[in-house]
Amino acid sequence: xxxxxxxxxxxxxAFARGRVRTVTGNAGEFVLEKDEERGQVYLRPAALDSSxxxxxxxxxxxxxxxxxxxxxxxxxxxxxxxxxxxxSSGTAARSRSEPHVRGLKNLVxxxxxxALPEDMEVREVLRPLALWQDVSLVLQRLYLxxxxxxxxxxxxxxxxxxxxxxxxxxxxPGVMAVSLEQDVxxxxxxxxxxxxxxxxxxD
Length: 203
Prior knowledge:
The chain has helices at 90-94, 98-112; strands at 2-6, 11-15, 22-25, 30-35, 40-45, 54-59, 64-72, 78-81, 121-129, 135-144, 148-157, 163-164, 175-180, 184-185, 190-198. By secondary structure, it is mostly beta strands. It has two domains: 2-81, Immunoglobulin-like (Sandwich), CATH 2.60.40; 90-198, Immunoglobulin-like (Sandwich). The strands form four sheets. A five-stranded antiparallel beta sheet has the order 9-10-11-15-13. Strands 1-7-6-3 form a four-stranded mixed beta sheet, covered by helices on one side. A hairpin with a 5-residue loop joins strand 9 and strand 10 (135-144). The protein is globular and about 50 Å long. The model is unreliable at 85-97 (pLDDT under 50).
């Protein structure tokens, strides 16, 4: 999810129905202050004149959300994260292990930064797919690993009204993580969508 943060001021980050447990990202890119009592954090870019986007993962007891933070010259603000419940399955249970969760986070960060990992095969695809009426979905790139597949999509709103997105609408068997740049897409707007799933025999 892409959100704007203050370039020179602290931005408060909180969950609507939970406490912030961890914030994971490149530590040199931001300064973090924790409010343990309220279960929230305050974050600002390490360089006050930087406009470089910052990739972070914010975790509560129930969910981990990928945020792409865009520093802009604006007053301090608040980001409230509303978790989407995910299916309960054997895959979801396994994903709670720390190494597995780190692997998912790292893959989403790689896709969001258009990096080309040495240990994965990367395929340029550009394949249009059917999703919903008045919505364009194009599979742009595949990241193929030994056990995981990362999929980078471009999602476009072709309608005349706002498109409200939720990661849970995109979960299906085998999907381990869904990350949306934006949860509300204006008419005519586009955004990136990242999905991590188990690798199948036919991949």
